[in-house]
Q: What sequence folds into this?
């Protein structure tokens, strides 16, 4: 008997793989891959009407051609169209091209006009014979990746557009509410955007204000809202353990009574919001946002206490090992005296330790489990998990959050989910965007904190900064010095950090200067961190591994080297490592411009924002201004764009409409609503609701 062969599958070609990489799989995906910009091949322009920077198509006669050998070998061609002349320059060329550019030939060229003392110039224009037909529509230019030529992509998109099922899924009456003409249906809108007629204003296409763009953005937002609403409704049908803490003997009450501080008003409010949620038999799905240092950990601990009071297990997942170490230490200090066993699970535990932890978790003896994403691995079996808390949730990939959800789902009871983040988005935005999340916000810092003073200083004044370090050390303070990591093709460049470490060690005799970076073995990291936490180490030079969570109140100065290379929210997170005690704290942003005379615009804006405000919400708002909100939503950062076309800030009216329309569409035409979501989000649905 012949063995059964798997069906023959043709291997994907390079461009096909590239399409896949871009997520362009279904015809509809291709149809929705809209142009970045357009080229105008519909007209011929006279040279006298052209100015520097114009991209244009011109026809004329070659009046001069020569290969210049001095300096760079190049082919220089003069084109005359009767209204003026233009110099064409080619640095590489084949003999065949040279032939088509011979004196006397009539040619059509397309390219960007540059000025220069030779008059109008085009570098490497596209050359054709004159007299061919002109395009009837603008030529689309799509975003692409290496290995996927524009011409291949154009054909693929064209084929996708022809094959995609594009019947309208948004009823006309809803579109009319936002002033959209339903006569322009989806198919027409898409055809137009891929091949606009030449008479359209390019500006309205470029800034996405054209009605066809409005329609697509509205549709996208609607899909996103409907999908979240579906998820919310599906969850409403699920059951979760009811977690209540009632009497004064409860763990919750005892923890509250033994904490070394009083909760702030904001903490009390969010604790109450969470308590109410988890006391219901419906799974909680809540985002807790609060600036760095706002005190989210204790809120998590109180939620965990309430969960354990009801006899259930709680898991707290954090993105880095150091962070889980700190959480573990803190939770043990708070809860162990009250009789709670806390387990701790990371990727680097020894086999024996790990087995013990797994046993504690599986038996339910450990009512609280802290860990990295090691928590979502197969080996981990919870006994009775009722509450999952994800700290710094934006640091986890969407896929990891999804894995956690899947891991925790049980046939009978679903756990409650609390996600915490220190990169807040403005509250109103959060409320309308996250249709599937309830949002709690800690908008107040614990009392007694002195605001951090931030200074932006050129690297040329490094010596002054180092002498400032000496002053701080003399006062018994500790210092963080952060260096960026340059990561190129998986090789970490630690030169910067190691050089700085050597420099500071030499400049500060008698002071322990430590070095911490992400490539160090976990045990070594732990040892360095312990010395710093214990106050023995004066200066900690580190790559951004200290970014999240660590808490050393005696550290009062942070220097960030090459601050211009960091993103705004990253800088804010880093800065949040100081100013955690009562002492006045400072942050120095050292910048260097490299070979350039000055910093680029965005880098300048970022550093300025840092110097002007300490408020995480304000930082988030500025970040939105500087970067655009798309990048802010988390998904785009990890490569799974949630919104491709719409912009939650700029398109607030459309978002508002989508939010109102989603429940109506879902109730009145559920099939249509489902079709709409499938079309827009397809295989991404699971991701979106993770
Ligand atoms: P984050 O919100 O950034 O996770 P943490 O939970 O790490 O902040 O809290 C920062 C510091 O503030 C910790 O040392 C914590 O114990 C302390 N803290 C939290 N709440 C209060 C409070 N209400 N009063 C005083 N200190 C507090
Ligand atoms: Mg924290």
A:
């Amino acid at each position: 008997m012949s063995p059964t062969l798997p069906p023959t599958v043709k291997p994907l070609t390079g461009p096909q793989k590239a399409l896949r990489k871009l997520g362009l799989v279904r015809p509809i995906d291709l149809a929705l891959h809209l142009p970045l910009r357009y080229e105008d091949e519909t007209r011929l322009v006279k040279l006298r009407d052209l100015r520097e920077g114009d991209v244009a198509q011109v026809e004329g006669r070659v009046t001069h051609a020569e290969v210049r050998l001095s300096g760079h070998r190049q082919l220089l061609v003069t084109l005359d169209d009767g209204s003026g002349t233009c110099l064409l320059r080619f640095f590489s060329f084949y003999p065949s091209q040279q032939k088509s550019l011979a004196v006397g030939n009539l040619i059509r060229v397309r390219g960007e006009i540059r000025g220069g003392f030779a008059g109008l110039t085009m570098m490497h224009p596209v050359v054709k014979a004159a007299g061919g037909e002109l395009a009837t529509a603008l030529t689309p230019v799509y975003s692409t990746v290496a290995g996927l030529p524009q011409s291949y992509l154009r054909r693929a998109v064209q084929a996708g557009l022809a094959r995609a099922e594009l019947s309208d899924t948004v009823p006309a009456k809803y579109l009319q509410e936002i002033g959209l003409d339903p006569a322009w249906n989806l198919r027409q809108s898409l055809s137009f955007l891929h091949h606009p007629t030449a008479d359209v204003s390019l500006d309205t296409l470029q800034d996405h204000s054209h009605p066809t763009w409005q329609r697509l953005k509205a549709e996208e937002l609607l899909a996103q809202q409907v999908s979240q609403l579906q998820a919310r409704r599906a969850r409403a049908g699920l059951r979760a353990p009811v977690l209540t803490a009632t009497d004064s003997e409860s763990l919750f009450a005892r923890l509250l009574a033994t904490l070394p501080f009083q909760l702030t008003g904001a903490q009390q409010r969010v604790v109450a919001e969470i308590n109410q949620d988890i006391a219901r038999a419906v799974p909680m799905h809540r985002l807790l946002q609060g600036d760095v240092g706002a005190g989210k950990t204790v809120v998590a601990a109180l939620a965990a206490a309430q969960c354990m009071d009801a006899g259930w297990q709680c898991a707290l997942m954090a993105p880095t090992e150091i962070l889980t170490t700190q959480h573990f230490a803190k939770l043990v200090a708070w809860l162990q005296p009250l009789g709670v066993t806390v387990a701790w699970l990371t990727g680097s535990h020894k086999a024996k330790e790990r087995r013990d932890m797994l046993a504690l978790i599986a038996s339910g003896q450990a009512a609280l489990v802290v860990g990295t994403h090691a928590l979502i691995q197969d080996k981990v079996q919870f006994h009775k998990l009722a509450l999952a808390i994800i700290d710094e949730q934006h640091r986890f990939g969407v896929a990891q959050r999804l894995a956690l959800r899947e891991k925790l789902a049980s046939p009978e009871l679903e756990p409650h989910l609390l996600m915490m983040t220190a990169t807040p988005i403005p509250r109103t935005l959060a409320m309308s965007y996250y249709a599937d999340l309830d949002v709690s916000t800690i908008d107040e810092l614990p009392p007694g904190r002195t605001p951090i003073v931030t200074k932006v200083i050129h690297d040329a004044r490094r010596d002054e900064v180092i002498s400032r370090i000496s002053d701080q050390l003399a006062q018994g303070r500790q210092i963080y010095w952060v260096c960026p990591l340059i990561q190129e093709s998986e090789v970490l460049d630690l030169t910067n950090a190691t050089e700085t470490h050597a420099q500071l060690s030499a400049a500060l005799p008698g002071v322990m200067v430590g070095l911490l970076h992400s490539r160090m073995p976990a045990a070594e990291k732990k040892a360095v961190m312990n010395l710093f936490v214990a106050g023995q180490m004066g200066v900690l030079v580190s790559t951004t591994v200290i970014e999240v969570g660590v808490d050393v109140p005696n550290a009062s100065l942070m220097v960030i080297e090459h601050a211009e290379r960091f993103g705004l929210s990253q800088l804010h997170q880093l800065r949040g490592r100081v100013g955690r005690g009562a002492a006045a704290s400072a942050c120095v942003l050292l910048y260097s411009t490299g070979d350039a005379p000055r910093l680029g615009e965005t880098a300048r804006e970022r550093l300025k924002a840092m110097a002007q405000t300490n408020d995480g919400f304000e930082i988030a708002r500025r970040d939105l201004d500087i970067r655009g909100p798309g990048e802010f939503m988390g998904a785009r950062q990890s490569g799974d764009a949630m919104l491709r076309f719409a912009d939650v800030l700029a398109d607030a009216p459309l978002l508002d409409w989508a939010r109102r329309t989603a429940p109506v569409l879902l109730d009145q035409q559920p099939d249509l609503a489902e079709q709409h979501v499938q079309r827009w989000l397809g295989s991404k649905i699971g991701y979106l609701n993770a």
